[in-house]
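Look at a sample.

——
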Amino acid sequence: MTPNAAIYWVDMIVSVVLMWGGLYVAATTANLAIGLGAGVVSVLALYRALSFIHELTHIRDDEAPGFRIGWNILVGVPLMTPSLMYEGVHNIHHIKDRFGTALDPEYLPLSRFTPLGLAGFLFVALLAPLGVILRSVVLIPLSFVVPPLRRYLKTKLSALIINPDFVREDLNRWRTAWVLQDIGCWLWSWAVIAATVAGVLPLRALLTGLLIFSLATFLNQARTLVAHHWDNEGDKMTLDEQFLDSVNVPPPNLASALWAPVGLRYHALHHLLPRLPYHNLGKAHARLAEALGADSHYHQASQPGLFEALANLFRRVGQKNAAKKTVGGQPAH
């Protein structure tokens, strides 16, 4: 199944229109109910639009001509989260002998955290917009005149990861397009600040946008918590173990299309077929679910919903911490 470029473009453009339209209404209306409703629409649309960064790591440019550039112009640069922050990074998560190890940028043994540590991991995502703002406003321009900072920016501050020890290894493959994306984020961030200082952009609009962005990153962090079971402690895993550590939240749960958009609700299936376009994952899941028995590994990867999966994770974390205390051990986090 090959990507349908029209689906990619229409989905992304509609999401962008709803994102900016919802923000405009939320930032200008005097009606609280309308403002809240528009804000929710903007949060979900921003989250969906931003989630296409995941698809960009799995499709070739000739499969959706111009989409990578268009996405960066409409989404990546305005949100100061360009595709360079996932390209060359996310694919490592799919390397069979790196998944779940210390070399995986998108894996931590979260089930070994304390409940408080896990909650901290979730809520720190609210600060993510401040991080990309700092990167764009200060660090990018400064890095062009301070070479050591430029190297640090590339290796440690240019990747969407959860493993804090991860270091990018592709310095020699840094593309011209990535430099242009960085420059775009820098100029955009300065333009927004200048417009706010000059009174062209109302402060309310800026703060509303930051709140919407923060809530979207929080929602993504909640989704991340239920994408895997996070039980591995750094050892290499078999393919079966990798699959069973991953999670699908398929229909009949319809809400998962909102909190795990652009195919992210089929995360376990995605690990089986990483090149399958997001718009075909639902069909593939339906066929596999029908063909495989209820006791198959495939069905074992499914969870009923976000809150159930989160509750299950926190319950397992609590049980493991209680067991550690029983034997006199100390939690690692």
Remarks:
- The chain has one domain: 5-289.
